[in-house]
Amino acid sequence: MVPSSRAILLIDDNPAVSRAMEIAFRMAGHRLDTANGPEEAYSCLARRRYDAILLDMNFRMGESSGGEGLACLARIVADDPAACVVVITAHSGIRIAVAAMQAGARDFAMKPWRNAELVAKVETAIARGAPAPPGTPAASPADLMAEPPRLLGDSVAMQALRTLVHRIGPTPASVTITGPSGGGRTLTALAIHAASPHADTAPVRIDLRDEAAWQRLDDAGGTAILRHPDRLDGVAQARLLDRIPTALRCIAIADAIAPIVPALYRRLATVEVAIPPLADRQDDAVLLARHFARIAAARFGKPQGRLTGAAEAAIRTARWPDEVRGLALAIERAVLLSGDGTVDAAALALPAVPTAVQTASAAGNTDANFDLTDAEKTMIEAALREHRHNVSHAAAALGLSRGALYRRMARYGL
Ligand SMILES: Nc1ncnc2c1ncn2[C@@H]1O[C@H](COP(=O)(O)OP(=O)(O)OP(=O)(O)O)[C@@H](O)[C@H]1O
């Protein structure tokens, strides 16, 4: 028997299909959220757990190979092997449906479908549950509700990180994660733990700078997330090494590897994982910003969470002192203070970068109240495009006076 209300995510780029499905599932007592493609889908999945995911296999017009859908399915199932995915294929797409079932889909529906039958199919797929591998302990309802930590980002570095997480997660290998603070080190540690056989037990988290907290190592089973081993002096590191139980799986978070003494390094870093700063993965910064805008819009009751082209260009080249956390805060604030959830470049309090423009300001040109970086020209072009070459609107979006924007347009030949 299926409980009355289920949360379902539909991944489909056709708004008419989404609306029709929303009504059909709502009438059956369920909640249906929609995502217009893989990027939005991963963002939704990072925010909450869905009982089922309905996945259209082709997103682009004229595309019928199912390749995009299969790639999306592979990522969803890799992040959460218990995900209940039902794929939707064209009537002639039996080959794609078979490939999807082999790749971990629970069921498939052919177009065109009857809404009532599709709802029943999804309810049945949920009720059947995931086929558990032999020896898997039963998950508690609380575990089933917890959101698996998801690392968003399509940069080569993030794709490699996700692959590594899935490869080393299930093993007992110790891992040390480095990278700038706020850049996703803890999230990565949690993702590794979530892919491990101890996933149903919360990891022990210890800030090693607080020696009193070390006593929690004594009764820790499963996984321990150990923060800042690199901040301890050599003597303390040796004491720590003696204190860590042999069977404990350690995931350490450090600013740098160099200060860790070799003996402790051997215990903590069978594998080293380095998370690059956002500045080295600019597309991820934009993708994450869109994700945070959607979350903030839902949280603050704004009709949409959207970034203008100028805002995206600014985000791509900005330096975020607190990395992803700093970006999330800036977007959250901008969405909150906006009228309808649309964020323009001027609304982002971008971290100051010494630039030619600032030098010009210091020399008496006071019309730049916005720190433009090397990518100034790109931002101006994006703002002009966004505002259909209306200079007043583009200037307002950039936080510049009309005169200042005209001067810059002349300088860049725009
Ligand atoms: N790739 C990512 N996808 C989605 N969210 C991310 C990603 N990277 C970071 N975040 C989010 O950014 C915030 C900061 O990340 P996290 O806490 O993992 O950083 P950290 O490096 O452990 O920071 P610190 O060591 O200072 O606590 C968290 O809310 C996290 O969920």
Automatic annotation (TrEMBL):
Gene3D superfamilies: 1.10.8.60, 3.40.50.2300, Homeodomain-like, P-loop containing nucleotide triphosphate hydrolases. SUPFAM superfamilies: CheY-like (SSF52172), Homeodomain-like (SSF46689), P-loop containing nucleoside triphosphate hydrolases (SSF52540). Residues 7-126 form the Response regulatory domain. Keywords: ATP-binding, Nucleotide-binding, Phosphoprotein, Transcription, Transcription regulation, Two-component regulatory system. Residues 151-336 form the Sigma-54 factor interaction domain. SMART domains: REC (SM00448). InterPro entries: AAA_lid_NorR (IPR058031), CheY-like_superfamily (IPR011006), Homeodomain-like_sf (IPR009057), HTH_Fis (IPR002197), P-loop_NTPase (IPR027417), Sig_transdc_resp-reg_receiver (IPR001789), Sigma_54_int (IPR002078). CDD domains: REC. The modification 4-aspartylphosphate is found at residue 56. This is Sigma-54 dependent transcriptional regulator. It comes from Sphingomonas cynarae.
